[in-house]
Amino acid sequence: MAKALSGKEVVSSINKSIKGEVSFLSDRGIVPKLAIVRVGERGDDISYERGASNRCAKVGVEVKKILLPDEVPQDRLLSEIEDLNKDETVHGILILRPLPRHIDDSLIRNAIRPEKDVDGITDGSMVGVYTGEDIGFPPCTPQACMEILDYYGIDVTGMNAVVIGRSLVVGKPAALMLIKRNATVTVCHTRTVDTPSISKAADLLIVSAGRAGIVGKDYLREGQIVIDVGINVNDEGKLCGDVDYEAADAIVEAVTPVPGGVGTVTTSVLVKHVVLAAKRQSGF
Amino acid sequence: MAKALSGKEVVSSINKSIKGEVSFLSDRGIVPKLAIVRVGERGDDISYERGASNRCAKVGVEVKKILLPDEVPQDRLLSEIEDLNKDETVHGILILRPLPRHIDDSLIRNAIRPEKDVDGITDGSMVGVYTGEDIGFPPCTPQACMEILDYYGIDVTGMNAVVIGRSLVVGKPAALMLIKRNATVTVCHTRTVDTPSISKAADLLIVSAGRAGIVGKDYLREGQIVIDVGINVNDEGKLCGDVDYEAADAIVEAVTPVPGGVGTVTTSVLVKHVVLAAKRQSGF
Q1: Which residues from chain B sit within 8 angstroms of residue A179, using beta carbons?
Q2: pTM listed for this prediction
Q3: B157–A191 C-beta distance less than 8 A
Q4: Residue partners of B164: CB distance under 8 A and separation at least 6
């Protein structure tokens, strides 16, 4: 049986360190604050907002919600963001996306000051991931993968890592973050010929394919570490990942479960970024 | 014997298309102009400047040179760049680097308007490479590799491509450009375990290792396409690449020579970017 890389354990470790930082800041009169900007009433947004707010509350991070109607004019949204940029009590800004179609996504994303871009969506944050410099913040999901590796003491130096997926929110940043950590990285995607063979050769597999259970036994071998970024609903209405967990459990060395794996860590990374932003903005 | 992927042929094809564009612009009263900013008197800089100027002259692109002393104050350099940004007759700006130590490289790079950043050094251009969007310009060297692929009709879709090197000027952008072109891409570097085996499995190999002749027969197999980005001087004082050309010549399907390969195309890409910048800035 594979070792389950439990997201809960990682979260509890991150929370512990966050609480220490929050208490350090609190002694200096600073309360880290996240502003969540939501346009409209999409169920996904509301549930992510709830998760993030609860996680913040648990560790003493304040949340300010900016709720705007679906038909909000772009200028109004822009001026809300500018107010949040100027507001010294707000350290991080999270904009729930996708935004309605009448709004220019790139304009809104890049209106956020990179120092407050705790979700890693500005061009500045992307340059940071690309160059490996400390500009803005990396996107939370690939950073969650790195936190899992760190918590379990997995040094990827010299490992053959395969990333399945080439999106801007997971695949590309995960690949660049692994390259920075000295892994040899291969990026597979929908146009890859024979992804199973390539995956099978990997020491570390990060899967963000967006298809339930697609990574089965023909992708896997003994000794692998598998991180499953997928979040899907299967035919029985249950949450599941991109990895066939039963198959992985029988073959590989370690695998993240879904639910209870990367997803749960992602929210903690967001909160960690807010606290880090608060520290930086306060000169610590 | 391998087919030699001649840079000269690619250059002559690019020059032909550039001349057409220059004549189109000239009919509308526009002469594309490149500004070259050089600080100090480094031999490498002077020789690159000469090469670029000659190439520009051949196709009817004007060159404006801004020559500044080694000890130029940063503010002065910055104000020169701002003048070039504002000057509507200047379409592209090339800053020869590295800059002297007293100058903040990031500040100077990012002072260039991305539309005029024909050498792909601004954060804006990097975001363009990372996201695959049309922002600024890609760096000239990896773009030269793409031009070679295009000229020889090599579609990389589904190919296993291996990039040796992870620099910001070659390795990372080349990898991202190949991913955009639907290749399955592996990035190897100094911390990779067994680069020869990984290279040997590649259909396409782009080598930017910075070590003369390091890629020998244990990296190569029949049927491969090899693009050698290296420019080194060997023990006999001759220019040579990172690939052992004789070994490659005996084994692979096609290989770029050094000299006469990627390097010569790089300068043409710079000129092509200037003409493209002139077109865009004139609304064509």
Answers
A1: 166, 172, 187, 189
A2: 0.96
A3: yes
A4: B171, B188, B189, B195, B199, B205, B206, B207, B208, B209, B215, B242
